[in-house]
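Example 3.
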Amino acid sequence: MSRVRHVGVFEREASLLGAIAESRERGLEIIDAYSPYPIHGIDELIGIRRSRLTLVCFFGGVVGLCLGLGFQYWTSAMDWPINVGGKPFDSLPAFVPVGFELTVLIGGLSTAFALAVRSRLWPGKRSRAIEGVTDDRFALVIARADASLASAELGALLERHGALRVWREVEE
Amino acid sequence: MDTEASIHVAEPPLLGGNKTCAEVTRDVAAPLEGKPTGMWWVAFLAAVTVLALGVWSVWYQIATGIGTWGLNRTVGWGFDITNFVFWVGIGHAGTLISAVLLLFRQKWRTSINRSAEAMTIFAVICAGLYPVIHMGRPWLAYWVFPYPNFRGPLWVNWRSALLWDVFAIGTYFTISLVFWYVGLVPDLATLRDRARGLRKKVLGFFSLGWDGSARTWSRYEMACVLLASLATPLVVSVHSVVSTDFATSVVPGWHTTVLPPYFVIGAVFSGFAMVLMLMLIARRVMRFEHYITWGHIHAMCKILVFTGSIVGLAYATELFVAWYSGSPYEQFAFANRIFGPVGWSYAIMVLCNVVAPQLLWSRKVRNSIGWIFTITVLVNVGMWFERFVIIATSLQRDYLPSAWSGYAPTLVEIGALAGGFGLFFTLFLLFCRFLPMLSMFELKTVVRGETGHAPHAESEERRVA
């Protein structure tokens, strides 16, 4: 089913937030908002769920820790135990620094990787950024959730909140 | 809106010049889009010349042998490891500014975090080179990694602090690079949307198709906080691990428990001095006076006084513990540092690190760019000598007087020291030329609150509505 998306470009953050608030009130679907910097509090306004990257980071860290300690134990106590200065083969306290570093390394890399995957960012991806949103403009993309509002009214709503430009896009 | 929210505390602005978002983009992008200035070329050619000198010294040493250095059987670590510890330390301020100040929501960091992070990466590159050169056979450097091999497989010795270094520095470099790159992506997108032709293509490739979507921003901010939370303990661990290279040995003057915190605070101290020095140059050369204001300079001066005082306390603690230990070897090690053949280096260390930053208590000194710049240079000199004092003088005279010896660097070693600075400044100048020195998107969050571009109260009301 094709859907008509209405795009409005604003000059001010406050106008964008105003337009979002009204769209919500009217039960419109807010597809996305674009801004040159992160706007705090916009998540709740649009209804973005709290990111679960924290979990990715935590489990990445746990994997790193287990891998680090496990590998050190396996190489020094199982695969080829070597007596170094009479210390025990399984010298756990000495394994802590490398275990910690691998926790941070794998935790951090998996977080960055998950960010890229979830946000569909990859090197060489063609940008479809709306003109100006990486500089000083704000944009809002809305659509009708149901037939309660005529298509023309969506454009009017955006303009009422001070949109500089308003246009429609037909989604495949 | 409740009454609490309406209490308004006037704070001095973080930025000067009443900038708008568009002006931030324009000002930060200007040096990247125009032709390099004459001053940039002079600085760049000077840096490359010094780098070339370093490359020659290292080449000569590798081709001829480690005997081209002044090291001997007693003093096995000299300039090489001093330079290593020095550069790792320089890197720490970048992580501290970008990660710790992010977690503490210190907004003033936005003007300096990008270049401080870049500095971290370049400093760690410089640091990593010295142990590799010091190996004598750098083409076998991969032996430090535990990889399957035909010698057993014979694994690395996980109980060695030197191996911990490999993992600590490797992780530190990787995480710093990722953090820096993640921070750059939105700004690369801003530049991409201004550029044309090949430049647009290259920036488009590296900006990952960034489009400023609120959903992406939400995840992005979470990722930044997570990376900062990881980098904060990491930065503490890195210099602690470096200090265990010394602290886990039995050499008097090295074998102390105070070494890890001593090294970490020294690293932060020297790093902040380096950041401040670079910022003072950058704001002049790049005309960033409105972005790097006196507020920033004073904040950094405060950190210098604070960390410098802790460094002073660490020196005093070290002396006290040496005396209190009752160990004649420990006591001798410190007497030798202060009154021994290279006692002058101890004096330089104390004068530059403990005395010089205290001058910043004076209003006249901290309001003078010349004075602050001099102090930052002195701190860098002092912190280099601190590492030299710890490393070279402790080794010179330990338990066995018949093994005592002296140490003097050769020209080749001095060349390698200079080369590190050449490499650092070459990389830093290239960074200034090709990447945004200030974090545009973060500056815009500051601008937003200050110019009334989008007043807080208004958006607050909207949110309530």
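Residues 3-36+132-171 of chain A form a domain with the Alpha-Beta Plaits fold (CATH 3.30.70.1110). The longest strand of chain A covers residues 3-10.
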